[in-house]
Amino acid sequence: MGRKLTFEIFRYQPLDPHSTPHMQTFTLEEHPSMTLFIALNMIREKQDPTLQFDFCCRAGICGSCGMVINGRPGLACHTQTSDLPEYISLHPLPVFKLLGDLSVDTGTWFRNVGKRIESWIHTNKEFDPKAQEERMDNELATKIFELDRCIECGCCVAACGTARMREDFMGATAINRMARFYIDPRDNRTPADFYELIGDDRGVFGCMGLLACDNVCPKKLPLHDQLGIMRRMVSIESVRGILPEFLRKKLQGCSSHTS
């Protein structure tokens, strides 16, 4: 017989005028290899069918089941109850619009920030459907793939102190996305172009350096490393007219994007 788990779960339906934010208690017997995703489904199926939370893939790929687990953002499908105490509190991710209970709207937030940072390849080449794919060095392709592994779960945004205080801060995930295009040789943008998008306190200079994004990322992306790289790039770009060209290029460390 497994442990008896006690769940304190945030409940609130914003569209229901009679609903008020409160915590509701559920108890459940723990089973081997139980995840929070399994536990929540058991609660919804056997105790309260109105409990609202999101899930899709159950494999840590879709990012839908992000929530605050005992005060720490994480994925329900990746969290084993055996790694948690018998008392488990669950809250929705902050920053994002609450849809109901543990369900939040991350899609609108990521779509909006994607438009802000122009999250697509910028090129002057005319598309030729008959042309062969452009070849790329394996090492560079691997670096781009590494930065492309973000599943947009929102955990890093929810853990970010700046994002909690400022709605206009784009967060580590967006800056990581910019770093992905910065190293992509198919993107024709210059450091000046990137500077215009992220070179202020809404971008790289808004980070307080608390490292919470690194701590909670379920994919272990080098978020703060990339923020440092992009901050260095825009800092050098900001003194373009002061530093000698040879020194600026040396500090930039990425000649393919230096104009």
Please report the distance between the alpha carbons of the first and last residues. 67 Å
Shape: elongated
Count of distinct structural domains = 2
- What CATH first level of the largest domain would be assigned? Mainly Alpha
Number of helices: 10
Taking Cα atoms only, what radius of gyration do you get, to the nearest Å? 22 Å
CATH topology of the largest domain: Fumarate Reductase Iron-sulfur Protein, Chain B, domain 2
| Main β sheet profile | 5 strands, mixed
* Content-based structural category: alpha+beta
For the secondary structure, the number of strands is 7
Share of helical residues: 25-40%
Could you describe the 3D structure shown?
The chain is of the alpha+beta class and 259 residues long. It folds into 2 domains: 4-104, Roll (Ubiquitin-like (UB roll)), CATH 3.10.20.30; 117-257, Alpha-helical ferredoxin (Fumarate Reductase Iron-sulfur Protein, Chain B, domain 2, Orthogonal Bundle). Helices cover 35% and strands 14% of the residues. The chain has helices at 36-46, 106-116, 138-147, 155-159, 161-165, 171-182, 191-198, 212-216, 223-238, 245-252, and strands spanning 4-11, 22-29, 66-69, 72-75, 87-91, 97-100, 103-105. The chain has a 5-stranded mixed sheet. A hairpin with a 2-residue loop joins strand 6 and strand 7. Helix 3 runs antiparallel to helix 6, helix 6 (171-182) packs across helix 9 (223-238) and helix 7 crosses helix 9 (223-238). The longest helix has 16 residues, at 223-238. The chain is elongated.
